[in-house]
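User: Design a sequence. Structure:
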Protein backbone atom coordinates (compact mmCIF):
# COMPACT_ATOMS: atom_id res chain seq x y z
CA UNK A 1 0.00 0.00 0.00
CA UNK A 2 1.32 3.41 -0.91
CA UNK A 3 1.99 5.67 2.07
CA UNK A 4 -0.26 8.66 2.58
CA UNK A 5 2.97 10.67 2.66
CA UNK A 6 4.19 9.35 -0.70
CA UNK A 7 5.18 11.87 -3.34
CA UNK A 8 3.10 9.89 -5.87
CA UNK A 9 -0.18 11.46 -4.73
CA UNK A 10 0.31 14.90 -6.33
CA UNK A 11 1.18 13.23 -9.64
CA UNK A 12 -1.79 10.87 -9.46
CA UNK A 13 -5.10 11.68 -11.16
CA UNK A 14 -8.51 12.05 -9.52
CA UNK A 15 -11.70 13.52 -11.03
CA UNK A 16 -10.59 17.13 -10.66
CA UNK A 17 -6.87 16.81 -11.42
CA UNK A 18 -4.12 16.13 -8.90
CA UNK A 19 -4.85 13.74 -6.01
CA UNK A 20 -2.72 15.71 -3.56
CA UNK A 21 -5.82 16.29 -1.35
CA UNK A 22 -6.71 12.58 -1.07
CA UNK A 23 -4.22 11.59 1.68
CA UNK A 24 -5.62 14.25 4.04
CA UNK A 25 -9.15 12.96 3.46
CA UNK A 26 -8.07 9.35 3.93
CA UNK A 27 -6.35 10.27 7.18
CA UNK A 28 -9.68 11.63 8.44
CA UNK A 29 -11.33 8.32 7.51
CA UNK A 30 -8.64 6.40 9.41
CA UNK A 31 -9.52 8.53 12.45
CA UNK A 32 -13.27 7.93 12.07
CA UNK A 33 -14.26 4.92 9.90
CA UNK A 34 -17.60 4.58 11.70
CA UNK A 35 -21.13 5.40 10.66
CA UNK A 36 -20.94 9.05 11.70
CA UNK A 37 -23.48 11.50 10.29
CA UNK A 38 -21.66 14.63 11.43
CA UNK A 39 -21.48 17.42 8.88
CA UNK A 40 -17.66 17.19 8.87
CA UNK A 41 -17.70 13.49 7.99
CA UNK A 42 -20.48 14.00 5.43
CA UNK A 43 -18.29 16.59 3.70
CA UNK A 44 -15.27 14.26 3.73
CA UNK A 45 -17.28 11.37 2.27
CA UNK A 46 -18.86 13.63 -0.33
CA UNK A 47 -15.45 14.90 -1.43
CA UNK A 48 -13.97 11.39 -1.58
CA UNK A 49 -16.90 10.12 -3.67
CA UNK A 50 -16.64 13.12 -5.97
CA UNK A 51 -12.90 12.73 -6.46
CA UNK A 52 -12.60 8.93 -6.62
CA UNK A 53 -15.82 7.71 -8.25
CA UNK A 54 -17.24 10.63 -10.18
CA UNK A 55 -20.35 9.74 -12.20
CA UNK A 56 -19.12 6.16 -12.60
CA UNK A 57 -15.59 7.12 -13.61
CA UNK A 58 -12.61 6.02 -11.53
CA UNK A 59 -9.01 7.14 -11.60
CA UNK A 60 -5.52 6.09 -10.58
CA UNK A 61 -6.15 7.78 -7.22
CA UNK A 62 -9.17 5.48 -6.78
CA UNK A 63 -6.87 2.47 -7.08
CA UNK A 64 -4.42 3.89 -4.58
CA UNK A 65 -7.10 5.03 -2.11
CA UNK A 66 -9.13 1.79 -2.01
CA UNK A 67 -6.59 -0.18 0.09
CA UNK A 68 -6.52 2.71 2.58
CA UNK A 69 -10.31 2.77 2.82
CA UNK A 70 -10.32 -0.96 3.50
CA UNK A 71 -7.56 -0.71 6.12
CA UNK A 72 -9.55 2.06 7.82
CA UNK A 73 -12.59 -0.21 7.75
CA UNK A 74 -10.65 -2.93 9.50
CA UNK A 75 -10.03 -0.49 12.38
CA UNK A 76 -13.78 -0.20 13.06
CA UNK A 77 -13.98 -2.72 15.88
CA UNK A 78 -16.12 -0.84 18.43
CA UNK A 79 -19.10 -0.08 16.21
CA UNK A 80 -20.11 -0.66 12.57
CA UNK A 81 -17.97 0.68 9.77
CA UNK A 82 -19.55 3.43 7.70
CA UNK A 83 -21.77 2.11 4.94
CA UNK A 84 -20.24 4.85 2.78
CA UNK A 85 -16.82 3.18 3.02
CA UNK A 86 -18.12 -0.20 1.82
CA UNK A 87 -20.24 1.44 -0.89
CA UNK A 88 -17.40 3.59 -2.23
CA UNK A 89 -14.97 0.66 -2.45
CA UNK A 90 -17.68 -1.44 -4.13
CA UNK A 91 -18.54 1.25 -6.69
CA UNK A 92 -14.85 1.75 -7.50
CA UNK A 93 -14.53 -1.97 -8.17
CA UNK A 94 -17.68 -2.03 -10.32
CA UNK A 95 -16.34 0.87 -12.41
CA UNK A 96 -12.92 -0.79 -12.69
CA UNK A 97 -14.54 -3.95 -14.04
CA UNK A 98 -16.40 -1.95 -16.68
CA UNK A 99 -13.26 -0.17 -17.89
CA UNK A 100 -9.91 -1.17 -16.31
CA UNK A 101 -8.09 1.44 -18.40
CA UNK A 102 -9.60 4.20 -16.22
CA UNK A 103 -7.00 3.46 -13.54
CA UNK A 104 -4.08 4.10 -15.87
CA UNK A 105 -2.23 7.36 -16.15
CA UNK A 106 1.03 8.55 -17.59
CA UNK A 107 2.55 8.89 -14.11
CA UNK A 108 1.58 5.53 -12.65
CA UNK A 109 1.20 2.60 -15.04
CA UNK A 110 -1.29 -0.22 -14.55
CA UNK A 111 1.47 -2.65 -13.66
CA UNK A 112 2.52 -0.44 -10.77
CA UNK A 113 -0.90 0.06 -9.16
CA UNK A 114 -2.42 -3.43 -9.47
CA UNK A 115 -0.58 -4.99 -6.49
CA UNK A 116 -1.66 -2.12 -4.22
CA UNK A 117 -5.26 -2.30 -5.35
CA UNK A 118 -5.50 -6.09 -5.18
CA UNK A 119 -3.84 -6.09 -1.76
CA UNK A 120 -6.67 -3.99 -0.40
CA UNK A 121 -9.57 -5.45 -2.32
CA UNK A 122 -8.67 -8.94 -1.14
CA UNK A 123 -9.52 -7.76 2.39
CA UNK A 124 -12.97 -6.28 1.72
CA UNK A 125 -14.66 -9.48 2.88
CA UNK A 126 -12.99 -9.05 6.28
CA UNK A 127 -14.43 -5.54 6.63
CA UNK A 128 -17.87 -6.86 5.73
CA UNK A 129 -17.63 -9.82 8.13
CA UNK A 130 -16.59 -7.46 10.91
CA UNK A 131 -19.55 -5.16 10.15
CA UNK A 132 -21.96 -8.08 10.42
CA UNK A 133 -21.04 -8.44 14.11
CA UNK A 134 -23.11 -5.32 14.89
CA UNK A 135 -26.73 -4.27 14.67
CA UNK A 136 -26.68 -2.60 11.27
CA UNK A 137 -28.59 0.25 9.67
CA UNK A 138 -30.64 -0.22 6.49
CA UNK A 139 -27.89 1.55 4.55
CA UNK A 140 -25.15 -0.73 5.85
CA UNK A 141 -27.22 -3.87 5.20
CA UNK A 142 -27.76 -2.73 1.61
CA UNK A 143 -24.06 -1.85 1.19
CA UNK A 144 -23.10 -5.32 2.49
CA UNK A 145 -25.53 -6.99 0.08
CA UNK A 146 -24.21 -5.06 -2.94
CA UNK A 147 -20.60 -5.70 -1.88
CA UNK A 148 -21.38 -9.42 -1.62
CA UNK A 149 -22.91 -9.45 -5.10
CA UNK A 150 -20.01 -7.49 -6.58
CA UNK A 151 -17.07 -9.24 -4.98
CA UNK A 152 -18.43 -12.78 -5.27
CA UNK A 153 -19.07 -12.32 -8.99
CA UNK A 154 -15.37 -12.71 -9.82
CA UNK A 155 -13.01 -14.42 -7.41
CA UNK A 156 -10.02 -12.33 -6.43
CA UNK A 157 -6.61 -13.87 -5.85
CA UNK A 158 -6.09 -15.66 -2.52
CA UNK A 159 -8.32 -14.84 0.46
CA UNK A 160 -6.49 -12.90 3.14
CA UNK A 161 -6.42 -13.81 6.82
CA UNK A 162 -6.64 -11.52 9.80
CA UNK A 163 -6.77 -12.66 13.43
CA UNK A 164 -7.88 -16.13 12.40
CA UNK A 165 -10.67 -14.93 10.09
CA UNK A 166 -10.69 -16.71 6.76
CA UNK A 167 -12.60 -14.19 4.70
CA UNK A 168 -15.27 -16.71 3.72
CA UNK A 169 -18.07 -14.17 3.34
CA UNK A 170 -17.73 -14.09 -0.43
CA UNK A 171 -16.82 -17.74 -1.07
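Assistant: Done.
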Amino acid sequence: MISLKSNLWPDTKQAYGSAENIPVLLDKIYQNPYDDDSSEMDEIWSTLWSCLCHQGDVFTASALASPHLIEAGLLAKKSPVSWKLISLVTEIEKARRKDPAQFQSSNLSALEYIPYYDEGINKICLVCEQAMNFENSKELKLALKIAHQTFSATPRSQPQQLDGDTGELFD
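Helices lie at 22-31, 39-52, 60-74, 83-98, 110-121, 124-131, 138-153. The mean pLDDT is 82.
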